[in-house]
Design brief:
The chain is of the alpha/beta class. The chain contains 14 helices and 12 strands. It has helices at residues 3-9, 63-80, 87-97, 105-126, 130-133, 154-165, 182-195, 212-222, 239-248, 262-270, 281-284, 286-300, 310-318, 361-367; strands at residues 13-30, 35-48, 53-59, 141-145, 172-176, 201-205, 230-231, 253-255, 276-277, 326-328, 341-343, 346-348. Helix 2 (63-80) crosses helix 4 (105-126) and helix 7 (182-195) runs parallel beside helix 8.
């Protein structure tokens, strides 16, 4: 056993620092549900008794969500202070202790970001990138640009797609759909598809805007327009409806960002509710939950992509047997010392201990939510 591993065995949870921020976004993201102009994030530091600091963050959806996560983490600290640095043990303990409140919503986000920070601390303590601690090697991870292409006029969408691809780093982008009519969806796809190169992959996302009947009609109208998947066309937890879409449409159906833990993903796969999955590390259970989900995807032979938090999920995808696409957003970049790099269509996992996250403390102070 290495000296680092021996030292790690003595690490105890000492304190947490949870900071809610509203990070500026370069592009307004207009979806069928809302227009997002700033990213509410919860930044977390976990400090151990021997001075290791593990970091993680999660997208909190609303400023109130970020603030609420802080209070859950305060309770979590009281339940685990002095415990050893063992993420799986802590995850089991906290799931049990929060069961009566319900491990969903803000509680799930809080426990997931805590798990991410704990795993970061483990990897830092071992002096290894997180991906190596998970049993894999750093490698390029296929990525698509998801920063823009919200609902807008087709001509504007075409222009924005070109901006997202302008530096040559990406070879795939995602377009939000859910216009008032199917003709609007088709027009937006055609405008973007015409503007971008033939070898650029175009993904689409309805953000749960449709009924099953509408989704069937619109899916049939767009499935031959040069798109690679349709994401969340209907309510995410309507597994019967999603299964019908997966059976009847030729284009793959993608769901998963709202899976509440691995059990929800298992239920969706058992129902045949999708062709592709894309868990969110903040909802699936952090690193611990992700690796369980990766095993499920592998057992079912289903390609697995990520949702948000690319700095962490690049490591997780590199350790996932059926890894597909990394969803890249730069929402945390304003508060990071070194944002994730995308080169030749893939994310480059940094060869630094942990996930590679380090805060720009001046920016954190600037964007902190009151």
């Amino acid at each position: 056993m290495s000296a680092a591993a021996i030292a790690l065995n003595g690490s105890r949870i000492e304190s947490l620092r949870a900071v809610p921020v509203l990070a500026p976004m370069r592009y307004t993201l207009g979806t069928s549900a809302a227009a997002i102009k700033g990213a509410p994030l919860l930044l977390l530091d976990v400090r151990t008794s021997d001075g290791i600091v593990g970091r993680g963050y999660t997208f909190a959806y609303k400023p109130s969500g970020a603030r609420g996560i802080v209070h859950v983490l305060d309770d979590a600290l009281e339940l685990m202070r002095g415990d050893g640095l063992a993420p799986l043990d802590i995850a089991r303990k906290l799931e049990r202790r929060f069961a009566l409140l319900g491990v969903t919503g803000i509680v799930r986000l809080a426990l997931s970001v805590l798990d991410m920070a704990l795993w970061d601390a483990v990897a830092i303590g071992l002096g290894q990138p997180l991906v190596r601690v998970l049993g894999a090697s750093p490698r390029p991870v296929l990525a698509y640009n998801s920063n823009g292409l919200g609902l807008m006029a087709p001509e504007a969408a075409a222009d924005e797609a070109l901006k997202l691809l302008a530096d040559g780093a990406f070879k795939a982008v995602k377009l939000r759909l859910g216009y008032p009519t199917v003709a609007g969806d088709v027009a937006a796809i055609r405008a973007v598809r015409k503007a971008i190169a033939d070898d650029v992959t175009l993904l689409t996302d309805y953000n749960q805007a449709l009924t099953t009947v509408e989704a069937l009609a619109r899916g049939r109208a767009i499935q031959h327009e040069g798109i690679a998947w349709i994401e969340e066309p209907i309510r995410h937890d309507d597994y019967a409806g999603n299964a019908q879409l997966a059976r009847e449409l030729e284009v793959p159906i993608q769901i998963g960002e709202n899976f509440n833990g691995p059990a929800a993903m298992a239920a969706a796969l058992a129902a045949g509710a999708c062709d592709l999955v894309m868990p969110d590390a903040g909802r699936i259970g952090g690193v611990s939950g992700w690796m369980q989900a990766a095993g499920l995807a592998a057992a079912h032979g289903v390609p697995m992509s990520s949702h948000l938090m690319p700095e962490v999920t690049s490591h997780l995808l590199a350790a996932s047997p059926t890894a597909h696409y990394l969803e890249y957003v730069d929402w945390a970049a304003p508060v990071l010392q070194e944002p994730l790099r995308i080169v030749d269509g893939s994310a480059v996992i940094p060869d630094r201990p942990g996930s590679g996250i380090a805060w720009d403390e001046a920016a954190v102070a600037k964007y902190k939510l009151g």
